[in-house]
Amino acid sequence: MEPTYSPYIIGELQRFDQRYTVFSRARWEEGLMRLKEMQTEISTAKMNRGVKGFAQLEQALRDASWYVERCFGRSASGLANRGLYSWCSQDPANGRYLGRRAAVSPEEASFRVKYAAKLFGADLVGVCMLNRSWLYSKIYDWERGESVDVDTLISEDYRYAVVLAVEMDYEALRTAPSVAGAATGLGYSRMAFVASMVAEFIRCLGYKAIPLGNDVALSIPIAVDAGLGELGRNGLLITPEYGPRVRLCKVLTDLPLKPDEPVDFGVQAFCEVCRKCAEKCPSGAISMGARSEWVDKLSSSRGVLKWPIDPIKCYRFWCANGLDCSICISVCPFNKPNTAVHKAARWFVKHAPPLNRILVWLDDALGYSRQIDIDTFWGKVRARF
Ligand code: SF4
Ligand code: SF4
Prior knowledge:
The protein is 40% helix and 10% strand. By secondary structure, it is α+β, with helices and mostly antiparallel strands. The strands form 3 sheets. It has a 4-stranded antiparallel beta sheet with strand order 1-4-8-5, sandwiched between helices. Strands 2-3 form a two-stranded antiparallel ribbon. Strands 6-7 form a two-stranded antiparallel ribbon.
């Protein structure tokens, strides 16, 4: 089946230059660079004042959760081919696999790679043919001060993508925008851990494999192609299992694999009537209205109608908050533990879209997507110990 973004493609998809993501711009655009500095100053000031949710005990949890990503990954900073995300094996012991290709059918290879991904810690895994429209046109390496044409780096041999999703902690995210940052950091650290090992497994089968986080390619459309979920109004991948409460990474490879089918479980129609993420967004970055091609002339991709997200408004809020945010993940009705009630609600979303407004109303009435304050969060955590 066709991915659910297909009806909204309105022209030639223009590949995106990574230099214009909001995080890259914060490395070279003066106003955003100042905002980035301000973010650190504000988070430190909140820590010094012991602001609830931002005290040292809480910020320490957040910063420690990022440790693997920041020291051994760095794709969250947009950097490619570093540490765990190295494009070649870093383990000399695995040199014995060089030139030794496992004889395996695409079906069997997909099964083995998916099993390896789950064993190594992925919560969801899917496979697709790589659509090169989703590769950046250029990667931006702010540390080396260079932009490099992606087509010179990723050859046509890389025909497949393995997409991996890791779940983020449900209760921590309900505190957004405070301790939620620890769930995000852990997600990034787990991405580096899982993607690196899946890539190494494929290399040990005798094929090429490049592990990627946020760098080199847009994760969300590739994840849609691989059948992990659909694009939501909040600009995030909505998965059936966890809603938007996942982080995504991917491995590009020349290992022939059997692609999965995209899924349609009713997100497009549901987001038309829900708007909860837009209502709760503290910066007004998420559109309440119809789809359009872009809102920010630098940081939005062209050629497809989406609910537009204003990345600068979002980033300004993060910087003023002192930490990142995630409210639009936390309040989404698809973000629930995968219980029988949630599965039943999802059945109605898929099979009875005219009831969507009632489901949104019920979500509100039952307080199902309600966030929790920091004291309630710690009370729940203590009760588990
Ligand atoms: S992360 Fe926060 S500020 Fe940014 S779009 Fe989501 S809710 Fe809005
Ligand atoms: S909160 Fe509602 S509108 Fe926003 S992504 Fe989730 S389902 Fe869609």
